[in-house]
Amino acid sequence: MEPKKAxxxxxxxxxGVQFPELFHAICNSxxxxxxxxxxxxxxxxxxIFFFGEFMGDCRLIAFEELRSAxxxxxxxxxxxxxIYPERQSINPLYRLVPFARKISGDKYCFxxxxxxxxxxxxxxxxxxxxxxxxxDSFEEFIFFQIVEELADGDRELHSDYxxxxxxxxxxxxxxxxxxxxxxxxxxxxxxxxxxxxxxxKEPKERQGVRQ
Length: 211
What we know:
8 strands; disordered C terminus; about 15% strand; alpha+beta; globular
């Protein structure tokens, strides 16, 4: 097994989760080689790495650092329980696994929900404790990041970098980028919605009341 694949599999084993199939497909393509810390030798300068030059203020986490990033996240979540007394615990139906960071320190995470195969993508605000639903799938997350990058005007739709990432989108999103001005797509993107992953404490007046 190639080092990058082995590192991803080891991270999944350690975390007890499985990353989306699309994440694995991109990894297997070689576009995630830069996330393998054990990779030796100079990078191929002709290779376009997945989010290698960032995409919409998104920095992917190296495979070997996923475990420590997860531990860091849950340390923050434990602190949030102390800051917000109305929160009793994290709902055991949910599991958060960070895979990328913003420059601000906020973390993009896969949200695993019991009984659901494909994890959603959420953004954890490190200075607010808020968890916002960002995308319903990893594919949709990639689409949103590409739209943000294009809307900022840093790259053109037909640049090699953008085209290398568009290949991973579904046909609907590909067609939308071809037929619709990016400004219109940007204006129509859904606003992130705050997601409650917490088990709340009962109001004081109900505590101790027999059911």
